[in-house]
Design brief:
31% of the residues lie in helices and 30% in strands. By secondary structure, it is an alpha/beta fold. The protein has one domain: fumarase (Alpha-Beta Barrel). The strands form two sheets. It has a five-stranded mixed β-barrel with strand order 2-3-6-7-9. The longest helix is centred in the C-terminal third of the chain and has 24 residues. It is globular and about 70 Å long. The mean pLDDT is 90.
C-alpha cells in the first residue's frame, strides 16, 4: 500500500517536487480561503493581501461560518466546499508570482496561466472532491483569523488550521502537467472510438 502523503505548511519546493498530477495528498497546517474579489483586489487594485500565504495554501471557497464570540472573533466552520477554480484563472498566474503561495485548492481544472506559474514558481493546483463541504469543515480544527470581512462571508479571507485536509487530487504539478488536459485527450480518443463503432451499426439510418 502506498504511503499517505501529508504536506505540512510552510511548504518548500522540495516538499512538492516529486508529487505528480493525479497523486492524492492531504494537508496539515494552515489554509486561507481566497476567491474572486480577493484576487481582484490584489491584481487589479494593487492591494496587499492582509494574510501572508507565502509557502502556504489557499482555498477557492465561499464557506458558511458561524460566529461563536463576535467580540473575541471566535468562529466555527460549518461548511467549506470548493468553488470553481477556473473563475480565478485570469488572476492566478500573477497571484502565484506575487504571493509565493504553494498550494491552490479548488474545484475543477485550471488553464495555461496557472500551468505556467506552477512550473515556474513550483506550486500545485489541487482539487477537493465536490459535494463534501461538510466533511471538509470537520477537518478545520480552528479558524484563526478573518480578514477583509467587509467583503461578506463568502469572500472573507478565513485562515484555518487544518488536520489531514483532503483528499486533494493534484490537478497541476510543478512540472506543468495538467491532469484535466491529459484526461481530455484520453476521453476524446475513447469518444471517437465509440462514435465510430456506433456509426457502423446505425449507418443504415438515413
Amino acid at each position: 500500500m502506498d504511503k499517505k502523503i501529508i504536506l505540512k505548511t510552510p511548504i518548500s519546493d522540495k516538499d512538492i517536487e516529486n508529487i505528480k498530477a493525479g497523486d492524492v495528498v492531504y494537508l496539515d497546517g494552515h489554509i486561507t480561503t481566497c476567491r474572486d474579489v480577493a484576487h481582484r483586489r490584489l491584481i487589479e487594485e494593487g492591494r496587499e493581501l492582509p494574510v501572508d500565504v507565502r509557502n502556504g495554501a489557499i482555498l477557492h471557497a465561499g464557506p458558511i461560518v458561524k460566529t461563536i464570540d463576535a467580540e473575541n472573533e471566535k468562529y466555527q466552520m460549518i461548511s467549506v466546499g470548493p468553488t470553481t477554480s477556473m473563475r480565478m484563472e485570469k488572476f492566478e498566474e500573477e497571484f502565484i508570482e506575487q504571493t509565493g503561495v504553494k498550494l491552490i485548492v479548488g474545484k475543477g481544472g485550471m488553464g495555461e496561466g496557472t500551468m505556467r506559474a506552477c512550473q515556474k514558481h513550483k506550486a500545485l493546483h489541487l482539487v477537493y472532491p465536490a459535494g463534501n463541504a461538510v466533511l471538509a469543515a470537520t477537518q478545520v480544527e480552528e479558524i484563526e483569523s478573518a480578514q477583509w470581512k467587509d467583503l461578506g462571508m463568502p469572500e472573507t479571507l478565513w485562515t484555518c488550521r487544518v488536520k489531514e485536509f483532503g483528499p486533494l487530487i493534484v490537478s497541476i504539478d510543478t512540472h506543468g502537467n495538467n491532469l484535466y488536459e491529459q484526461n481530455k485527450i484520453i476521453f476524446n480518443k475513447r469518444k471517437d472510438e465509440v462514435y465510430e463503432e456506433i456509426s457502423k451499426k446505425v449507418g443504415f439510418i438515413k
